[in-house]
């Protein structure tokens, strides 16, 4: 069977006289030098490779172009060069302004030399600049018509046409199979036009068939000394992480938790939450994630709904579990302090930092109101009194088991075999936000959580083991436990844990930690771009400033992109789309090329997104409104 046709071309014929008789090139060299010519040449080659005779490009892509070219070329130089090329007609300004493409008569003439030797000679009329007499046999179609262009090879029979990588296929094409020309169906679930952005190697990768515990241990077993968790300055290596997970798994066994049992976790993002989550995966039990801020009655309802046997609770909220043993299916309650993983030195250092921060804020407030400056000793007393007030008397009662005692029980070896992986066996219960009705418990499997992480890893992002990830999203939502935690650990990154996130101090977190990657909601970026503390900060270390959880206002998106560009970040804000039922993100802007204002990008490699008519159940075509179906 013949391979799919490609839009781009494999070579472009540049005249050997280009530097002798082309006045436009002479002007470019005179105004912008060889760097300018290099940028022009690079963009022309992108046009030939990707679409053949045009390149979809905008000023937001300046940083990406500069990064790809290297050699000390800046995004500013790219913008200035493109502006000049438009000025002297090396690129057509009318088509750039109207359609956001870079093309010219010269580019199209070189393209026509190749296209004229092919069986099908179809282009978009709106983009084409050459006169009919210059390209006899050419067929023009409209961007808005059902007819669509293709560039299939003249050579080849049904059996010898060279295969074309899926990543090269343009979304508006004919498909050539077995000698028959078939038009694209117009149904996204069949056409999958987004696959052109992925390499064949990525599309052929198999989704992992293992538990989440096995996935992170196998991915990181060769790097036991690399940092896995950073908790207020305490660094926990991957070797230590796995040791603590294993001990927690044995502790669960010691306290009677077995395969299929459900444990409710009412915790923020602290190391113990991570030990518990992966330990439950190892023993085949299920984690029921609940927000500690939930009311006492709400927590009891979540427990009974899941028929949970054990509750693991942050100690400051433990009073909400006072009646849990009487009113719910809970048999044992484990309480955890946020300080359990912190040595005394780090605790004191954190307290000192918190006190100084509170003192400076109150001093600034007093100054603005022309009030008396606060005394530091009063700030210190208030700080420790607040800690004492937050301590739960119930957490210290005999009805609760402190984490230290629970964890110690796991020191004893347990030789009971661990269950085998099963694809659809439940791993996790997370609860929806209730935006379309009452909050629902959603059951996710090891397979679905790993699949979401695996697809993100292979979507084209610059993820490296040496990178750090700022995790500000809570673990009781799919976005937090999946994209915020499992993804960076699967990649072997250092995950910076923030158990109680204050959006107003997002800038301080960036200054202190300088993370390569971070996830947040749109409002978080509003705080960043208006921060005085970040005014002169070099943000070149930021690689994937990701946003999700809500739609991002287009004006805020533009402002954020401009802020990032001005602070030397090469990347635009990365938007995504997903929901709890599919373990958070299923689509995202995987590169600057797929990142347009207002867009949430493209589906991940193994994901299909389509639109259906809710009344008829029929799949709709492109640009039609209906209900979203994700598979």
Short account of what is shown:
The chain is of the alpha/beta class and 631 residues long. The protein has 21 helices and 24 strands. Strand 18 (517-520), helix 20 and strand 19 (544-547) form a beta-alpha-beta unit.
Report low-confidence residues grouped into runs of 5 or more.
1-6, 151-183
SSE-based structural type: alpha/beta
Our measurement of the CA-to-CA distance between the termini, rounded to an integer number of angstroms, reads 28 Å
Average pLDDT taken over every residue: 85
The number of helical elements comes to: 21
Q: Which term fits the overall shape?
A: globular
What is the radius of gyration computed over CA atoms, rounded to a whole number of angstroms?
Answer: 29 Å
Helix fraction, binned, reads 25-40%
Account of the protein in words:
The protein has 631 residues and is α/β, with parallel strands linked by helices. It is 37% helix and 15% strand. Strand 20 (574-579) and strand 21 (584-588) form a beta hairpin. The longest helix has 28 residues, at 23-50.
Write the layout of secondary structure elements.
Blueprint: H1 18-21, H2 23-50, E1 55-56, H3 62-69, H4 75-87, H5 93-99, E2 101-102, H6 105-115, E3 122-124, E4 139-141, E5 174-177, E6 180-183, H7 188-191, H8 200-203, H9 212-220, E7 227-231, E8 234-237, H10 238-254, E9 262-266, H11 271-283, E10 286-289, H12 296-306, E11 310-314, H13 324-327, E12 332-336, H14 344-368, H15 376-390, E13 400-402, H16 403-408, E14 426-431, E15 441-445, H17 446-457, E16 468-471, H18 478-490, E17 494-497, H19 506-513, E18 517-520, H20 522-529, E19 544-547, H21 554-566, E20 574-579, E21 584-588, E22 602-603, E23 609-612, E24 627-630
Parallel strand pairs: 3-4, 7-17, 9-10, 9-11, 10-14, 11-12, 12-13, 16-17, 16-18, 18-19, 19-20
Antiparallel strand pairs: 1-2, 5-6, 7-8, 14-15, 20-21, 21-22, 23-24
């Amino acid at each position: 069977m013949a391979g799919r046709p490609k839009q781009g071309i494999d070579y472009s014929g540049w005249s050997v006289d280009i530097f002798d008789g082309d006045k436009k090139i002479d002007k470019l060299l005179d105004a912008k030098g060889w760097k300018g010519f290099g940028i022009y040449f690079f963009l022309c080659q992108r046009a030939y490779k990707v679409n053949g005779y045009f390149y979809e490009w905008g000023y937001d892509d300046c940083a990406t172009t500069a990064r790809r070219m290297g050699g000390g070329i800046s995004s500013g130089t790219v913008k200035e060069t493109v502006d000049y090329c438009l000025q002297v007609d090396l690129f057509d300004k009318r088509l750039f302004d109207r359609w956001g493409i870079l093309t010219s008569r010269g580019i199209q003439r070189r393209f026509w030399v190749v296209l004229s030797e092919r069986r099908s000679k179809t282009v978009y009329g709106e983009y084409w600049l050459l006169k009919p007499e210059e390209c006899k046999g050419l067929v023009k179609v409209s961007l808005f018509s059902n007819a669509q262009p293709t560039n299939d090879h003249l050579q080849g029979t049904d059996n010898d046409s060279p295969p074309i990588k899926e990543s090269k296929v343009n979304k508006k094409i004919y498909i050539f199979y077995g000698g028959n020309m078939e038009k694209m169906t117009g149904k996204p679930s069949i056409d999958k036009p987004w696959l052109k952005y992925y390499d064949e190697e990525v599309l052929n990768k198999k989704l992992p068939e293992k538990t989440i515990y096995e996935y992170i241990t196998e991915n990181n077993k060769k790097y036991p000394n690399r940092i896995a968790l950073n908790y207020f300055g305490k660094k926990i290596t991957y070797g230590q992480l796995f040791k603590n997970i294993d001990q927690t798994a044995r502790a669960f066994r010691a306290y009677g938790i077995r395969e299929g049992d459900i444990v409710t976790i009412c915790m923020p993002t602290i190391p113990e939450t991570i030990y518990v989550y992966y330990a439950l995966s190892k023993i085949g039990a299920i984690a029921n994630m609940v927000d500690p801020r939930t009311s006492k009655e709400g927590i009891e309802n979540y427990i009974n709904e899941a028929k949970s046997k054990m509750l693991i609770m942050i100690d400051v909220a433990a009073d909400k579990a006072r009646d849990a043993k009487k009113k719910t299916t809970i048999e044992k309650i484990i309480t955890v302090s946020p300080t359990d993983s912190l040595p005394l030195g780090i605790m004191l250092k954190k307290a000192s930092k918190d006190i100084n921060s509170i003192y400076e804020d109150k001093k600034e407030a007093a100054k603005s109101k022309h009030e008396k400056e606060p005394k530091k000793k009063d700030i210190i007393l208030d700080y420790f009194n607040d800690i004492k007030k937050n301590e739960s008397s119930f957490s210290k009662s005999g009805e609760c088991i402190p984490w230290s005692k629970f964890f110690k029980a796991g020191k004893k070896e347990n030789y009971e075999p661990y269950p085998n992986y099963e694809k659809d066996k439940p791993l996790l219960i997370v609860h929806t936000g209730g935006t379309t009705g009452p909050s629902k418990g959603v059951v996710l499997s090891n397979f679905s959580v790993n699949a979401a992480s695996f697809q993100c890893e292979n979507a084209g992002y610059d993820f490296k083991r040496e990178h750090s990830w700022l995790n500000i999203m809570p673990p009781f939502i799919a976005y937090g436990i999946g994209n915020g935690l499992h993804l960076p650990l699967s990649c072997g990154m250092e995950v910076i844990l923030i158990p109680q996130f204050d959006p107003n101090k997002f800038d301080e977190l960036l200054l202190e930690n300088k993370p390569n990657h971070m996830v947040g909601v749109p409002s978080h970026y509003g705080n960043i771009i208006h921060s005085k503390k970040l005014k002169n900060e070099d943000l070149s270390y930021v690689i994937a400033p990701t946003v999700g959880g809500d739609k991002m206002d287009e004006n805020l998106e533009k402002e954020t992109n401009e802020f990032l560009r001005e602070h030397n970040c090469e990347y635009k804000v990365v938007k995504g789309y997903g929901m709890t039922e599919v373990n958070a993100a299923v689509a995202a802007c995987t590169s600057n090329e797929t990142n347009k204002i207002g867009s949430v990008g493209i589906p991940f490699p193994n994901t299909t997104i389509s639109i259906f008519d809710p009344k008829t159940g029929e799949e709709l075509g492109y640009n039609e409104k209906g209900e979203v179906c994700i598979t």
